[in-house]
Amino acid sequence: MIYWELFFTFFKIGAFTFGGGYAMLPFIQAEVQQKGWMALQDLVNFIAVSESTPGPFAVNIATYVGTETGGFWGACFATIGVVLPSFVIILIIARCLKKFQNSSLVKGCLSGLKPAVVGLIAASLLSIGQTVFFPDGFYWTVFLSPAFLCSLVIFMLMLFLQWKKFHPIWIILLSAGLGLVTGYLGLLEPTIAT
């Protein structure tokens, strides 16, 4: 039954991934592709959408994959599956926090997990970047494409926000305007391989 398969798949991802939604992304991508639940292009498009929607990233993706695969109940089972491990772990940690908060073993484990989480997030960045910018292999012309140049502008705006006191709403409005203009002019045609 697809509902239980969704639940156990996302339960496994939620239970064995430390570091949030971005760290879960490589596992979600691998499971979705292995099971043939949706095309890579659809998943990449929804990753972009889930960035701009409220709520935790992993929950948004689990809900979307569940909806695409099993409708309303698929979304419920996938969402509960990805949330339940964290909920149980937090309950256990809250119960045992006083006893283990000064443990050098716990501190060492958490320190060791930091590089792993950074590695998982970097793997997500490389995987999605390759899918979006280099679907047919590495070509220098990609660096002159409108999609890459828009991404570069967004990155520069992000750096600008780090050093200058500029209200973020203006950056959001500017980005929305650029998105509308490029969308209507057809400058950003998707070139994602499935």
TrEMBL record:
Subcellular location(s) per record: Cell membrane
InterPro entries: CHR_Transporter, Chromate_transpt
Top-level division of the source organism's lineage: Bacteria
Pfam families found in the cross-reference section: Chromate_transp
Membrane topology, record value: Multi-pass membrane protein
Sequence intervals crossing the membrane: 6-25, 72-94, 115-133, 139-161, 168-187
Keywords, sorted A to Z: Cell membrane, Membrane, Transmembrane, Transmembrane helix
Principal subcellular localisation of the protein: membrane
PANTHER family assigned to the protein according to its UniProt record, in alphabetical order: CHROMATE TRANSPORT PROTEIN-RELATED, CHROMATE TRANSPORTER
Family designation: Belongs to the chromate ion transporter (CHR) (TC 2.A.51) family.
Protein name from the UniProt record: Chromate transporter
UniProt organism field: Clostridium facile
